[in-house]
Write the structure tokens for this entry.
Amino acid sequence: MKIKWYNLLLFISPAFILYTIFVIYPFISSIYLSFFSWVGVGAKKYVGLKNFYDTLFGSFKEEFFNALWHNIYFFIVVSIVEVSLGFIVALGLATQIKGYHIFRSIIYIPNVISMVLVGFIWGLILNPQIGLINQILKAIGLGHFAKAWLGDPNFAFNTIIAVNIWRHLGFYVLVMLAAIINIQPDFIEAAYIDGANNWNVIKNIIIPLTIPTAQTLILLLFIWSFSVFELIYALEGVQAGPFRSTDVLGTLFYRTAFGGLGSARMDLGLGAAIVTLMFLIILPVSFLYIRLVERRR
């Protein structure tokens, strides 16, 4: 059936108008604002590329690269742990061990809890005085390992990463489980008939056939790692303490654009420059992801 162009236009217009208002317009406005200095009131002052220079080479360089490194570190650790652990757990579930339906539901439960609630729950669990973890360590005679998990600069960011893994692991388990289940049973049965053991089947059939799924997850993790904000905000606040040890580009942008206790500088133009740089970092990976998806079709 041939669709007339004006009918097609009628159908896509509502979505296009909403997308323009809530995505395209704010995006273009943000880039435009990055060339100005503006605290939110009064006239904007045109400063050209000064915001970008200050961010990359000037007075704001240290804060920016500190946050950028945390985003990169977050991506490296999370992608290794979540994808590999998700694969291992999915492999166990794919064998359909007794009670795997219940376990599959349990492991996905943290994904449906709001990030604010996750921050509240883990804030209590990690509390240095009344927190469950320190109480357990003391009860089993390992009290010397008890510490201020979110108050020690050497442990705070890794602790937040561990909470993030707890929150999202269920998603990666389900995706990897779907990839394993979709493998043709004939391949595995033929391998066993030829005398392969379980390890050979995993190494030569399951891992190679689930690598494309892992590649997609890693590309998505890169994009998501540069938009991480809520969990750090919920556990450490906009200051990203202690001593900026949990600061990422999201919290740096929020603190710079909208202010807050401990802000080095408040300027919406400078905040817009940070967001524009985040976009330039994520853009090539987004294109790579789209190309990967298109190629698989």
Summary: The longest helix spans residues 61-94. The two ends are 24 Å apart (CA to CA).
